[in-house]
Structure prediction request, 911 residues.
Amino acid sequence: MSDTAPAAPTAAPAPHGEGHHTNYVKIWGILVVLLVISVLGPMLEIRAVTLITAFGIALVKAYLVAKHFMHISLERKWITYLMVTMLALMLVMVGGVAPDVLKHDGLRWENVAAKESVKKGNEAGEKAAHGGGHGEHGAAPAGEHH
Amino acid sequence: MSTATAEAGHGHSHDAHGHHDEGFIKKYFWSTDHKIIGFQYMFTGMFMALIGGFTVYAFRMQLAFPGMSVPGFGRVTAHDYNSLVTTHGSVMIFWVAMPVLIAALGNYLIPLMIGCDDMVFPRINRLSYQIFLLSAVVLIASFFVEGGAFGGAWTAYPPLSASAAYNLTPKGAPLWLIAVALEFVAFLLGGINFITTVMNSRAPGMKMFDVPIVVWMIIIASILFMASVGPLVAGAVMLLFDQTVGTGFFDPSRGGDPVLWQHLFWFFGHPEVYVVLLPAMGVVAEIITVFSRKKLFAYKTVLYTAIGTGVLSFFVWAHHQFVAGIDPRMANIFSVTTLLISIPVAEMVFVYIATLYGGSIRLTTPMLWALAFIGEFLIGGVTGIFLGSSGSDIYFHDTYFVIAHFHYTFFPIAFIGSFAAITYWFPKMFGKMMNETWGKVHFWGTIVSFNFIFIPLFFLGARGDHRRIYDYTHFPDLMRSGMQELRVLATLALIVLLAFQVIFLVNFFYSLVKGKKAEQNPWKANTLEWVAASPPPHGNFPELPTVYRGPYEYSHPEARDDYWPQNQPPATA
Amino acid sequence: MAFPRPIATTRSVTGIPTGRLAVWWVIASEIVIFGGVLGSYIMHRLGHSDWQYQSANTNTWAGAFNTLVLLTSSLCAVLAHQAAEKKDGPKAARFLMFTVLGGLTFLVVKAFEWTNEIKHGYTLTSNTFWSFYYTAAGLHGFHVLAGMVIMLFVAADARKNRELQRVENIGIYWHFVDVVWIFLFPLLYIAK
Prediction:
């Protein structure tokens, strides 16, 4: 049996761990600061800034969590590639679907129902926003189509 | 860890199980042994195949003899017809092909073929089967609820599937969806188990390219499944809400989009074809090397083509939707990718033929099945080219040509592949030999009648015979001379095919009890499962093997025999 | 433990412990599940300019507070891992309990938030934006709940210094759930 014995026990030292001292609280602090920025960003009411503070910061936060909390950078390289591949597959999916679902018209076709729904929603929304008296919650019932 | 092989003698024969000290329930229903779980999947799959077979019998009878009272079923109403077709499709894919080819073979073969004693997560493995069993129970329960089984086709396109006003199966529809979702969870758990087991628990000395092709194929298939099923799981939740609480995810008038479901479904649905194809291809690779006593012609090519097929399969899904109103420019792209994917699959077939070339071929029953797989699947693949090109698909779409095409792919995968696997590994699984003569009778009966079912459907489809029609007598265009006769021919051939399966079942269970006792390695094969006793005891190997070479060293000049087991140490130099 | 472990579980050909390897594969499969929901949502959102009137009503402060809660619980999970690496099971268990507490806070905040929204008429069926809102956050909440339950089991073992490698494994899963929320937060709350 001895020659067929397991090569490494379950509790084998991971490629990471010992001798690795990340200041986790510091990382957490950075994450919280980023969170504050992402909440404050939209208050400038500049579209480009909102997009950057919302999604750019989300990417940075995700990177920090993956690197320092999940230790993905200390893991075998292919694990990172696997995660990136899965994300890339989602891009493939969105890329293949968007021309039919995101867009409501194209080469010799038109999604009449979707356009109608957007138009109705916009009209109801504008009415609620400018009609006054409704307050900020006025849009919801108008959006209903049972 | 391993008990003595003495147990092997009566381990799985059905008359002896009562005496086993573990107890029948504990041994066969609560076991964490990968072999028992494999059997659970296999027998559940075989049982579900009976349901799939019965439903096709009922609705084919209706098509051939409209309005007749079908023996064993009664009159098929239009409502029944929808339920029967839906049940046939979903059962055969999700509850027959998947459990038998991936789960049963994966569970049974992986630990044996990579030389270890069990899966790395035996209890998760048991849980996986239990969830699968639950999914089968939910599906069967849906036959008996108000309105009957789901009648929105196995692809479940909204709005037909989303609203009971259209599918008329208010209870069956959500139950069907829940059953499918549970089944996905079961296979995700099983798939992760397969992948981690093969990655981490291979026998000492077994390198990446020493892993048998069938194991590789099951792993690639599991990864494909895992990577493609996510959007459909998401879509299933959305559709379930559409059905039960009245959301409008797939309702365009409320800001949803029905085409989204088609995309989510086929983003999974097309890789799914390769999820079941690849294990069957792997089974064929094992069998043709053993029975032509020749090394697999190009091990790495098979592997790379399988990976290439897997990668490409994520870029072809919209070829199912050419007439669904997708943008024609996208249709062009998907036509090109679809035609590209035939290259790696064809290359795999060429490799198999090259393996046969010059071999010392033995036409045993499993070998016949394997050869038939190559031939029949080829027809399925070649006819797919007409459907993959968006131009010709516009004509062929939703005709019986499509039905004939995908049955020429799925029947070889789900049945020919499974029969090949079962007849090949039966001696190992149960320690008994199956009867060769009856095996061949079953083979010829099945193959001939199979072709008599689907060749007429190609002709019908080419003449414009629309699918999804319950009673053709209402459509004079589809009752032109000879068309109904072809339908009758296909139905009669189906009955013959179903009748021949009785021979298989009798042969299977008779051999299980009274078959000739099998040796440890009756086919003189190299892979590690043949090193274990037949059937292997709990723990599989008396001593866990060490691997010295690849799995296909047949007729090697340095070997003493014409086979050279992977675990046999090389002669000391 | 009574369950006899197969030899298979003790092998590690890749060099990555089997449990952690499996967690990475679980995450891989989860990426595509959440990718399916979020991809569908993003496409619809970009195609429906009228949804801005709906999304204007989500509560950014509740979302931001929950982000803070999850980030903090992730910190506790990684500190638990650090303690487990030093073979200090009880300390790891304590940190895991803090993580569970974080998950609980998250769900309680969610419950109040949703109650308020439903009161104002924004229900699962009132508009497809809200359908996506509840489905995506609900699916995420379900993962939070599942992670909490598993974590309780892991913590119970860790307290007795057993199965300490699981502390890291459940932590990796928890961080992933955190990352999903990091993307849900701007998608559902900030992008008005």
